[in-house]
Amino acid sequence: MKTFLFLYFTIITSFSIFLLQESELEASMQRGSEIYADFCVTCHLDAGEGVAHTFPPLAKSDYLLENREASIRGVKYGQQADIIVNGISYNNAMPNPGLEDEEIADVMNFILNSWGNSSDKIVTIEEVESITK
Amino acid sequence: MKKSIVSLYLIVVAFNFSCGQDTVNQVTTINDIPFHEELLVDDLTIPWGIAFLPDGEMLITEKSGNLYLFKNGERNKISNVPEVYERGQGGLLDIAVHPDYKNNGWIYLSYASEDGEEKGGHTAFMRAKIKDNSLINKELLYKGSPNTTKGQHFGSRIEFDNKGYVFLSIGERGARDDNPQDLTRDGGKIYRFYDDGRIPEDNPFLAIEGAKTAIYSYGHRNPQGLIKNPFTGDIWDNEHGPKGGDEINIIKPGANYGWPVITYGVNYSGTPITDITAKEGMEQPIHYWLPSIAPSGMAFITTENYGADWKGALLVGSLKFQYLELLKLDGTKVTDRIELIKGLGRVRDVVEGPDGLIYVGVEGKGVYKLVPNK
């Protein structure tokens, strides 16, 4: 009986945490989609497809999904570096979009969970704050 | 006989070829480019605006907030530049030099500014003088309001006409349903001032209750090219449309250029914005780009430095396709589009210097000089 109760509460607790995170993620992605439409869409385009050799794709981008910290840093401070995304090299500058940490977390959550991308860990304001130039 | 058959054949082929081509919405490449490009000023992130002092010294703004004076191969950073709101498309933007600079020393700057009560920023317009590599006598001439945290569409090109007026473009700040068609609100407009910022007595909307009196024309989206046509004295703009609706317009007093009521473009997602491209009382562009090139910067070639054929042609930078576009004109009709310096980077500004040569600001690179091949 004890074991049952323990298991019961553990499962209920983890399930509700899971659901809570889901809705937190969804709310963040919703805000992030508005940031995306304002700051990102003109270059990275509506389905995150980018323009080959000019603006790197975000949809199913190996660079993005494997370099979480560098991607957040790029959004936070802008980026000028030669990078290779899905086998194509890009050397354009991305200007600093001037976003607040909360907005960066939101837009990252949107990008990391749209167009076939998925991430197991939600980007938090604390995570964005901790990333320095 | 043989010769005449060959020439007849060539005539027929040439005729078919010329008929089958829609020159206006198709950009072409040429082999006999009459110049080579030379990187004159390197290491600039986003050289947003370029202007020349009468003796050939060059002023360059960098969007991040830097202003440089380039002379004799040396770059000097100008201090005491206004603080800019660097967010999205905002930052330190255009620069212009008063036509009578020799006597009065005024330069003009546009930038995104947080001045004002609301959170966010809007386009500001300032004049100042340069002394000992520092800005002095700064005078704020205009500031769009209310501020908004939107990152889009500051516009910001500055241009003088022949009559002593100065024009400024402000984009619609990401509020297309609120700003461009409302004369009481800033954004989506081209403004006209006296050189000291006063409002001309014959500006078109002085009599309209609550209207912003500096407005000269409205219904614009985001004009990032503004140039006096040196042959007619008219002010021309180019502006970013939505997907497929970039335009060239000739700016007329009081005119409505239609955004977002009429447009040749659609939303970035492909959904329609409006189902009409023309309406009574709204101006038609003299040219629209399909697909969009994302135009920025604008210059006329006034000399024969690049050949007699190019005198009078218009140059426009393409951010999206990373080239400089030459548009040949027959009066106000675009007859040909030619792609130049493809692949150097996003072309942000293009100007004709006092030496009659063309200078091009390229993002991530710097300022290139187009040196004629002779």
Record keyword descriptors for this entry.
heterodimer; A: 133 residues; mainly alpha; Cytochrome Bc1 Complex, Chain D, domain 2; two-stranded antiparallel sheet; two-stranded antiparallel ribbon; 5 helices; 57% helix; B: 374 residues; mainly beta; Neuraminidase; 4-stranded antiparallel beta sheet; 24 strands; globular
Describe this structure in words.
The complex is a heterodimer of chains A (133) and B (374). Chain A has 133 residues and is mainly alpha-helical. Chain A has helices at 2-44, 62-66, 68-77, 101-112, 125-130, and strands at 79-80, 83-85, 88-90, 93-94. In chain A, strands 1-4 form a two-stranded antiparallel ribbon. In chain A, strands 2-3 form a two-stranded antiparallel ribbon. The longest helix of chain A has 43 residues, at 2-44. The model of chain A has no long low-confidence stretch (mean pLDDT 90). Chain B has 374 residues and is mainly beta. Chain B is 6% helix and 40% strand. Chain B has helices spanning 2-19, 101-104, and strands at 35-42, 47-52, 58-62, 66-71, 74-78, 92-97, 107-113, 122-131, 134-143, 158-160, 165-170, 189-194, 215-218, 222-228, 235-240, 246-250, 287-289, 295-300, 314-318, 323-330, 333-340, 347-352, 358-362, 366-372. In chain B, the strands form 6 sheets. A 4-stranded antiparallel sheet of chain B has the order 1-24-23-22, with no helix packed on it. In chain B, strands 2-3-4-5 form a 4-stranded antiparallel sheet, with no helix packed on it.
Shape, principal axes of CA atoms of chain B:
globular
Using only CA atoms, what is the Rg of chain A? 17 Å
Main β-sheet description of chain A: 2 strands, antiparallel
Distance between the termini of chain B: 41 Å
Order of helices and strands of chain A: HHHEEEEHH
Low-confidence stretches of chain A: none
Q: Provide the gyration radius of chain B in Å.
A: 21 Å
Assembly form of the protein: heterodimer
Q: Output the number of helix runs of chain A.
A: 5
Question: In total, how many domains does the architecture of chain A comprise?
Answer: 1
Please give the count of helices of chain B.
Answer: 2
